[in-house]
Design a protein that fits this description.
elongated; two-stranded antiparallel ribbon; 2 domains; Glutaredoxin; alpha/beta; single chain; five-stranded mixed β-sheet; 7 strands; 18% strand; 5 helices
Length: 194
């Protein structure tokens, strides 16, 4: 009987300690996470919308050559903002490669802008491992955040021949479906104004 009473007393004495640990550790963490999510969504609203002119950028490619959005004037550009540490980004890239192989001989280009802070060191091996042949550009300084204001990764901006944003896709998707290919073919067949 005494052992049971001692055991019960030990259990009672542990409860306040567990509760105190919860109060001093878990509650501040939860409050911080709620504040962070609220702040992130309030301060990172999209800077561009469908129908806006696409902001111009220039970044180095994996080969070190500078690439600008203006280099593709008159083409349909699939701009993808991504990072190697983002699992959904890697999941959608094989379908981007399939789309690229179907349309690369037309007025079409994919520009995959990586925001990895380590630049080519991370991006080069990643592209090679997945067998990706479309251009990867490097934005280790986070310039795209200030130009396009992506609200998640990956985020894709489809830019028409006139340099206007036609579609914005937040999150991963299968870019090789017949419907998606048809969407791009329609954009490619649309005559340029002027």
């Amino acid at each position: 009987m005494e052992e049971t009473e001692v055991h019960t007393a030990e259990k009672r004495s542990r409860k306040p300690i567990t509760f105190i640990v919860f109060i001093f550790i878990a509650v501040p963490v939860i409050v911080f996470l709620l504040w962070y999510v609220s702040f992130f969504h309030r301060s990172h609203k999209p800077l561009v919308l469908v129908g806006d002119p696409a902001p111009v950028f220039t970044f180095p490619g994996l080969d070190g050559k500078m690439v600008s959005l203006t280099d593709y004037k008159g083409k349909v550009v699939f701009l993808n903002i991504w990072a190697t540490w983002c699992p959904p980004c890697g999941e959608e890239m094989p379908s981007m490669e399939k789309l690229y192989r179907q349309l690369k001989d037309e007025d079409f280009e994919i520009l995959a802008v990586s925001i990895d802070t380590s630049g080519a060191e991370a991006v080069g091996p990643f592209m090679k491992e997945l067998g990706l042949s479309f251009p990867a550009l490097l934005d280790p300084g986070g310039t795209m955040q200030n130009l396009y204001g992506p609200t998640g990764l990956p985020e894709s901006f489809i830019i028409g021949k006139e340099g206007v944003i036609e579609k914005i896709v937040i999150g991963p998707m299968d870019w090789s479906t017949p419907e998606v290919v048809r969407f791009f073919r329609n954009l490619l067949q649309r005559p340029k104004a002027g």
